[in-house]
Write a structure and sequence with these properties.
This protein has 6 helices and 5 strands, in the order E-H-E-H-E-E-H-H-E-H-H. The chain is an alpha/beta fold. It has one domain: Zn-dependent exopeptidases (Aminopeptidase, 3-Layer(aba) Sandwich). Helix 1 links the parallel strand 1 and strand 2. The two termini are 22 Å apart. The structure holds zinc ion (ZN). Zinc ion binds next to loops.
């Protein structure tokens, strides 16, 4: 079968169930679980469209950031006809997880410097308002990524294109309500799939020239 799906999508779920913190102050929202649930749906939807999809971590526990990166690198090297794009899906947090905060919004991160990952991130950012109306887009400078803000950045530095999505704040009450809303979750999944299609179209345009 010939396909115009040129991306190898590498899904990178957040953390693991045993990792401390990474939840709402009242403990009802768990980041590792939310991320895996969304990415499982994204996996189904992308495969139905004809994409090749793999995971850096198929378990519920944390396997370590360098292990995730190593696995992603191995997948990225396997098939030179596909362009590897890693998508890491997280929830943001403003405080240390003990109190409710007010920060809100969605951000998309890439590694430092201007790369194709930034172009891909641009497609995701562009579609935030369409799929998640009313949700604040948080735009940061590339330089911000040089801070040790969240150790997950290790996975952005492999031999593949990579995006880290921070979808709403798990220490914001209103954001947690949205993260618990099935219709909102479906929008997040569709947003990711739609944006992956934009990235794939970009690759197709580049390779047909
Ligand atoms: Zn996280």
């Amino acid at each position: 079968m010939t396909t115009n799906k040129k991306l190898l999508v590498i899904l990178d779920p957040a953390h693991g169930e045993e990792v401390p913190g990474k939840r709402s102050p009242d403990g009802r929202h768990r980041e590792y679980k939310w991320s895996r649930e969304r990415l499982k749906e994204v996996d189904h939807l992308l495969k139905a469209l004809g994409y090749t999809v793999v995971w850096t971590n198929e378990s519920d526990t944390e396997t370590g950031l360098s292990a995730r990166k190593r696995i992603a690198n191995t997948y990225a090297k396997k098939d030179s006809s596909l362009v590897p794009l890693l998508i890491s899906l997280h929830n943001d947090a403003k405080g240390n997880g003990t109190a409710w905060e007010t920060a809100t919004g969605v951000s998309v991160w890439t590694s430092t410097g201007k790369t194709t990952s930034d172009i891909f991130a641009g497609f995701f950012i562009q579609r935030i308002s369409e799929w998640m109306p009313g949700v604040r887009r948080r735009l940061y400078k590339d330089e911000y990524l040089e801070r040790d803000f969240e150790n997950d950045f290790t996975v952005l530095t492999g031999d593949y294109f990579a995006l880290l999505i921070e979808c709403l704040f798990q220490d914001n009450k209103d954001d947690v309500s949205l993260l618990e809303d099935a219709r909102f979750c479906k929008r997040v999944e569709d947003w990711i799939v739609d944006s992956v299609e934009d990235c794939n179209n970009h690759v197709n345009q580049k390779t047909s020239k």
